[in-house]
Design goal:
single chain; alpha/beta; Nucleotidyltransferase, domain 5; five-stranded mixed β-sheet; about 45% helix; globular
């Protein structure tokens, strides 16, 4: 169907809405950039409207693509990076496998053992992940107690090895740099709520671009667009 319930009462066609959400979450563009790009195509869309679209549909993109993700392997690399939220630093946790495939991510107000434990639990319950054989981390002192508690609670296997290392594989550092590039045009986030919802769109688009969707290859850009339309119920 051409107008799914999710787009009911919207002034613009679903295809236009998803185009803006997809471009914002994929490329280093500001909302005003997109406003001008739409104007070039004869569409008058205020940048604040595009902002609302991203906040509404970016989390939906993350939720709807997850059932279609390829399984990841049992070698984890976990790290966190700083994200500016309303002038204060927050922490974006991320885990990838040995091939660089995203396991999961989480925005946290704190960088401590409770946050690390909460993140590990999130990764462990993701539909496309498996119990880790090894978890590579940096020297952050919060990770060992978090892993110990998860093992004591039988949430994490006793056989899982926590391996602190000075140099994490640059696969996860590449993901951090990608996030920084996307955030830069907007000069950070105005609230934790907006940051969390927008980051879900960034990370969902990254998983799609990496080729993590079961039926769509990494280099198949048109297939990725068709996939997004399909999970939102838009006819090709």
């Amino acid at each position: 169907m051409s107008h799914p319930v999710l787009f009911k009462w919207k002034h613009f066609q679903p295809e236009i809405i998803l185009l803006n959400v997809r471009w914002y979450c994929r490329y280093a563009l500001s909302y005003r950039d997109l406003e001008e790009m739409m104007a070039e195509r004869g569409l008058s869309v205020d940048h604040s409207t595009i902002n609302r679209w991203v906040l509404q549909y970016a989390p939906e993109l993350d939720k709807r693509c997850r059932p279609h993700l390829r399984p990841t392997n049992d070698s984890w690399k976990v790290d966190e990076t700083y994200v500016n939220v309303k002038g204060a630093w927050k922490y974006l946790y991320r885990a990838v496998d040995s091939r660089g495939q995203t396991l999961d991510f989480m925005l946290s107000a704190k960088r401590d053992s409770k946050a690390a434990k909460r993140f590990f639990k999130k990764v462990l319950t993701a539909q496309h992940t498996q119990t880790p054989r090894v978890i590579n981390v940096d020297q952050n002192a919060a990770y060992p107690p978090a892993v110990d508690e998860l093992k004591q609670e039988d949430i994490l296997s006793e056989d899982a090895e926590l391996r602190p290392t000075q140099d994490l594989n640059n696969l996860i550092e590449q993901d951090h740099r990608r996030i920084k590039r996307l955030i830069k045009p907007g000069l950070g986030f105005g609230s934790f709520h907006k940051a969390r919802r927008t980051l879900k769109g960034y990370e969902a688009m990254a998983m799609i671009r990496k080729g993590q969707i079961q039926t769509v290859d990494r280099d198949n850009v048109t297939g990725q667009i068709s996939f997004i339309h399909k999970i939102f119920g838009i006819a090709a």
